[in-house]
Amino acid sequence: MQSGRYIPLGLLLLAVVSLTASGCVPFSVGTTARPVPEGEVVPSMAIYSVPGGSVLEDDSSRVGTRYALLDAETRFGIDGRSDLGVRIPGMSGVVVNYKRVLGPSATPDRMVVSGMVGGGIVNGGNHLHLEGTLLASGPERTVTPFGALRAMQVIPVSSDAVSDSPSLGVILGLRIGRVDLGVSPELAVYYDRSALGLRDSKFIVIPSITIHGADLLRAFRF
């Protein structure tokens, strides 16, 4: 089909926009509380929309605009209680996070609660990134609900980088399909002060969708 040839171009354009847009931190969760099975590797791609202007340029004309951002992530199953994720947020940095089940083991027929911590470099190397997330998800089904509380902080590491306050968010989502083949739409609400004053509100709403599983990503020629 001819339409398939245009998908890589769309992803490329999203990546270019991500390099110049604000909020190049992992606002979406893209995973349930249940870890990837031991020994398995699951790639994913998250596309989401963030309001505000550029973090690299104080341009008040950008107030009220939205940017599409693209994250790529791969999760590696460590054991029955934990996995490791490597994420490229906004295609302009790298964040590594570790997720571990809290409480009873993650059996498919019960609710699971996990903690996830991570850190890395974001915004083209201008900021150190730290994050902590508490996740909960329902029993494994074709449609699995999940939610999260997330706190993030960026720390300037270059003289040109701006300082910012912590971002605190509540995320609700649904995983449709399986961990190795599915999609996960999410809606997040963050308390996120604009470092350059390019937004009037300190609260932002971020819709996103994560595509996960090697077979599905191949269908998008990613």
Order of helices and strands: HEEEEEEEEEEH
The rough form would be described as: globular
Q: How far from one another are the termini?
A: 16 Å
Sequence of strands across the biggest β-sheet = 1-2-3-4-5-6-7-8-9-10
Low-confidence stretches: 1-22, 53-63
Instruction: Give me the secondary-structure category.
Output: mainly beta
Helix content range: under 10%
Largest sheet: 10 strands, antiparallel, barrel
Question: In terms of quaternary structure, what is this?
Answer: single chain
Rg result:
17 Å
> What is the count of β-strands?
10
> Would you tell me the overall average pLDDT?
82
- Beta-strand proportion: over 45%
Determine the number of helices (DSSP H or I, runs of at least 4 residues).
2
What does this structure look like?
The chain is mainly beta. It has two helices and ten strands. The chain has a ten-stranded antiparallel beta barrel with strand order 1-2-3-4-5-6-7-8-9-10. β2 and β3 (82-88) form a beta hairpin. The longest helix has 14 residues, at 7-20. The chain starts with 6 loop residues before the first helix and ends with a helix. Residues 1-22 and 53-63 have low confidence and may be disordered.
